[in-house]
Amino acid sequence: DTGVSQDPRHKITKRGQNVTFRCDPISEHNRLYWYRQTLGQGPEFLTYFQNEAQLEKSRLLSDRFSAERPKGSFSTLEIQRTEQGDSAMYLCASSLGYETEAFFGQGTRLTVV
Amino acid sequence: AQSVTQLDSHVSVSEGTPVLLRCNYSSSYSPSLFWYVQHPNKGLQLLLKYTSAATLVKGINGFEAEFKKSETSFHLTKPSAHMSDAAEYFCVVSGGGNNDMRFGAGTRLTVKP
């Protein structure tokens, strides 16, 4: 078990470009979460999956954001037409259920220039 | 819907003195509650968790927290602060059903020599 893995660790993109991040959760963890964290703030909930089903999506998330978790394994988060306000650390976490500890990846730091 | 409120954005203590970080929660279900710590440029690490067992929960590094349903609180304490405790602390609520995991805004703990 190598923990939650996120790729890439860093991404610099030009405004208006699309970006995709990947998260590989701990195997057999059925819950997978995506969060966004900006400097000095707590992780902000974006969306989460129970197996392959996307059960909730934050109302703060614009239509430019989409996430998938095919076959309940890895997950991708795509941001279309990036804006400078999208610059943040994107965190992925996985857990066995709501009562159990969520394990976090190291995050993907996105910089939109 | 569920949420947490961390009552102090910044707490400063002297080394060797007690630490109290306050958290109030709101949840429609019997919640699971967690405290996570984030050191500068490090990932999120679980300190302790409450999942409807004993109301006084002991965690790593001498931290503990008490679940008080009547007060909807889950305050984090430590008898004697150490310099290495300086970090950002997050209170987290996770509910049943389709509820996701929500973070508080965080409390920055500073430990003075």
Question: How would you characterize the overall build of this protein?
Answer:
The complex is a heterodimer of chains A (113) and B (113). By secondary structure, chain A is mainly beta. Chain A contains no helices and 11 strands. The relative contact order of chain A is 0.33. In chain B, 0% of the residues lie in helices and 54% in strands. Chain B contains no helices and 12 strands. The interface between A and B is medium-sized, with 23 and 21 residues.
Sum up the structure in keywords.
heterodimer; A: 113 residues; mainly beta; 7-stranded mixed β-sheet; globular; B: 113 residues; 6-stranded mixed β-sheet; 4-stranded antiparallel β-sheet
Short description:
The complex is a heterodimer of chains A (113) and B (113). Chain A has 113 residues and is mainly β. Chain A is built from no helices and 11 strands.
SSE topology:
The complex is a heterodimer of chains A (113) and B (113).
Chain A: E1 5-7, E2 10-13, E3 19-24, E4 31-37, E5 44-50, E6 53-57, E7 65-68, E8 75-79, E9 88-95, E10 103-104, E11 108-112
Parallel strand pairs in A: 2-11
Antiparallel strand pairs in A: 1-3, 3-8, 4-5, 4-9, 5-6, 7-8, 9-10, 9-11
Chain B: E1 3-6, E2 10-14, E3 19-21, E4 23-26, E5 32-38, E6 44-50, E7 56-58, E8 64-68, E9 73-78, E10 87-94, E11 101-103, E12 107-112
Parallel strand pairs in B: 2-12
Antiparallel strand pairs in B: 1-4, 3-9, 5-6, 5-10, 7-8, 8-9, 10-11, 10-12
